[in-house]
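From the shared-data thread, chain only:
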Amino acid sequence: MHKEQIIIVSNINDPHTDEMIRLLKDMGHEAIRLNSDDIPLNTTMSLSFGNQTGILHGSVAIQTNGRMIDLEAIRSVWWRRPGEFFLPPMFTEREREFARGEIEHALRGLWASLDCYWVSYPESIRQAGWKGNQLQRAIQLGFEVPKTLITTDPEEARAFYEACHGQIVYKVMTDVFLGAPKIVAKHPDQPPPDPYAVYTTLVGESELASLDSVRLTPCLFQEYIPKQVELRVTVIGDEIFAAEIHSQEHEKTRVDWRHYDVSIPYRKATLPADVAERCLQLVKSYQLNFSTMDLILTPEGRYVFIENNPNGQFMFIEELVPELRMKEALAACLIRGAN
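Structure, as tokens:
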């Protein structure tokens, strides 16, 4: 069978998906969007096994747009940040957890059975997201990385602060919005939590006074690295796109550039060949076909690896640096597929 379907697994409120569907259509290809919000109420799934061919047969019908995913016709899948399933509000908490587990089990079996091109396979994305392993691999590939401590011991945190001469930051390892999106998805009938985000934070006297709370959950502390500029490096297929983020030009963005309410310059960057090769090797070591990385270029000219974001945002970078044609590169990968 000729494999022609391009599938985007996403959520209903993702503008990256909206933009990619428009671009693919302009290039002559109709993508099929599967939103996690439509599962299970607006989808019908059927899978069949046991015909001794080893081939998975089946389909996923998406009732909200009348589209049908033919599992044998899938050329490529873009795994673009699906969220929680939308379960009936009359379910009890126990019924909700049972249904969620059954749906996830069925879908994981489906994804694992597909013979197609992934951007990127969900289990590879999950593995590539562990901060500790990222740093270990980066070191093995020759990157310089900041001194880092993940701990639930307040005394270890204090000792790390002293060892770094009082220049350390605290960083959230998972959700900077402190679980709010999942709470909203699981309980759509309840008022949402107050909006709040935790940015990378310099540890000072007030934070030191609260270090006993470290006992309650693992915390990541990292040596603060002085910056000339910060770099956002995006790998798509075998192509590398790099942007300079001039975070030191505004007081609010000097520690964490993700304050989008202020304007700072973004420019195209050119990486040294060895740094670019390390970035590519890191992504490929996780069997990813897409990833974004954060690096720091220090005032002395050292390139320091900070973290890998295996399903990171990238279109905002292209809006600010239009010569980085990342949307077209990703669309070409999805159209080309495994060929």
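The chain has three domains: 5-115, 121-144+226-325, 147-224.
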